[in-house]
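User: Sequence in, structure out. Go.
Assistant: Echoing your sequence, followed by the structure tokens.
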Amino acid sequence: MEDKIKLVCLIAAAVLTAGFAFLPQGTVRTLLFLIPYALAAWGVYREAFESIRHGEVFDENLLMAVASAGAFFIGECLEGTLVVILFEIGEFLEEKAVERSRADVKALMDICPETAVVIRDGEEKTVSPSEVEVGELILVRPGERVPLDGRIEEGTASFDLSALTGESAPATGEAGSRVLSGSIDLDGAVRIRTESLYEQSAVARILAMVNEAADRKAHTETLITRFSRFYTPAVVALAVLLAVLPPLLGGGDWNEWIHRALMFLVVSCPCALVLSVPLTFFCGIGGASRRGILFKGAVGMETLAEAKVVVFDKTGTLTRGVFEVKELRPSGCSEKELLRLAAAAESGSHHPIARAVAETAEIVPAAQEIREFPGRGVRAMVEGRTVLVGNARFMEEEGVACGLIEEGTVVYVAADGAFLGAIILADTIKNGAAEAFAQLKELGIGRQILSGDGRRAAEAVAGQLGADEVTAEVLPDQKVAALEQIMEQNGPTVFVGDGINDAPALVRVDVGIAMGAIGSDAAVEAADVVLTDDAPEKVPLAIRLSRKTVRIAKVNIAFTLGVKLAVMALAVTGIASMGLAVFADVGVTLLAVANAVRARRE
């Protein structure tokens, strides 16, 4: 409502000003101009008094109030009225631009469901999501948003994840599938067993990050805020000296120098800088969020723009962490026998490699006396035979001679001390990983892999993706030291991990990016940036968006200061007009804001 009132007042003020402009000079003309002036300036004076009341004396509203009132004092009522009309029109347009830039973040706020249908004692009850406990059963119907994270127990449906991941294609969920809160059920009723409380859910984490992002200012943004605190009082003091000293020293007419000082005040308003720089980062963060890239603050975006090298964890980041049997190499037995015995021994293990072997075999006999040797292998009794399955080190410890195979991830198999052969597995590289490395190369950024996996497996992935360097067989507590060395050699460094066991590295590095970890405590706490899905190609996209945002902020600073300093000099020498002064303030601000809004787009 207030916006509408302000707009009506500005239109009325503009119409009256156009009509009074042709009146002859005199007291009557000045008094009549007080009407459009009051219609246009009431907002300026109100904001100025509010700022003074909160201890912020020197802001753009006070400068505009003093400048316009001073114009009336020296008889320039037309210019004084035009100054506030144009200033208020500029403020109105700026507010609309800011509202538009907030649309992306407001859209995120809408992903939070207000209710959840929970099934208790066989009855459906509608409650607040915060009242649902872990392990309870909730019902989600077509068209509704999922209120809490969980797994589908009954039903099948397609889910719109665009608000969470930026991915437009719907995902199919069926019994056993994990579903994140905030996603929309498109076509089927499902019952979901909750796995987290509301405050730990994906949607709650997103909202927390959005709110946190608004509070974490970039270095450039903080610098501008500090600059304006000293800049505004300084220009007010200079304007006073400009109005008083030359006439006192016999350098001209009082009215002329007061007029120049007023123009100097109008030009000096720092609103273009104070508004456009924070708005640029806000637009950049909002635009990135639409693509499933959540920045926890402008600092991360600013630092990411300076990145020289990106270091990737391998398993779970560049690869799916799902192993597949690629080749069987029997020695003294058939392929079927090799796989059958290995699968039996591995059947009791939860290791990804063990699961891959066990799931590949068609028939898995029962195994007894299974004993695991972490990091090496497993021993079990299968059909009366002692079966060993593990790496080369395990075979050596057990006295089994086997030829070393230098490719992929290798599992060696032996029975009763005799070597039976080897099973070669490979971790599947994620779609988009090769594209991500190619794009990073185009951006001039180094690509490295830092992994705790064996050297052969890490180098195989590095070779397929085109990594510059690879560091393998690094334990979790050694990753930080390895990263520090990379940072020392290369400068600003980015680490991309899965956000759980990589948490120490995500904290230590210049910019930590957690992939697909929106539901992970470690990711949210440790990373500066969270990718809401597992798309590696969003890493170079995040860097491009960061570079564009920072570039726009720097252009706005240079353009604004350049124009203002030039027009200030013209105002001091008497060459500039009040119209040019208004452009140097309102016009420059509008151009800077329009440029800032470009950060919403890639």
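User: And one key feature?
Assistant: The chain has a mean pLDDT of 81.
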